[in-house]
Amino acid sequence: MRHAGAHTTYVRNAPSPGATSSMAIAEHIVAQATQEHDLNV
């Protein structure tokens, strides 16, 4: 589960310990946070 605040993105309740280090999940979160916070990365 992910929640975006004004200037922050909170990630919690990863589906499993292995998923917390998953690059695919990390890339997805970064893409969403970049879009939601209007970041140009």
Order of helices and strands: EEH
What is the subunit arrangement here?
single chain
Number of domains: 1
Total of helices: 1
Can you count the beta strands? 2
Strand fraction: 5-15%
Q: Write out the strand line-up for the largest beta sheet, numbering strands in chain order.
A: 1-2
Mean pLDDT: 75
Distance linking N and C termini:
23 Å
Structure description:
The chain is an alpha+beta fold and 41 residues long. It has one domain. 34% of the residues lie in helices and 15% in strands. Strands 1-2 form a two-stranded antiparallel ribbon. It is flat, with a radius of gyration of 11 Å. The termini are far apart. The model has no long low-confidence stretch (mean pLDDT 75).
Task: Please outline what is shown here.
The chain has about 40 residues and is α+β, with helices and mostly antiparallel strands. The chain has one helix at about 25-35; strands at about 1-5, 10.
List its traits:
about 40 residues; alpha+beta; two-stranded antiparallel sheet; 1 helix; 2 strands
Task: Note the topology.
Elements: E1 2-4, E2 9-11, H1 23-36
Antiparallel strand pairs: 1-2
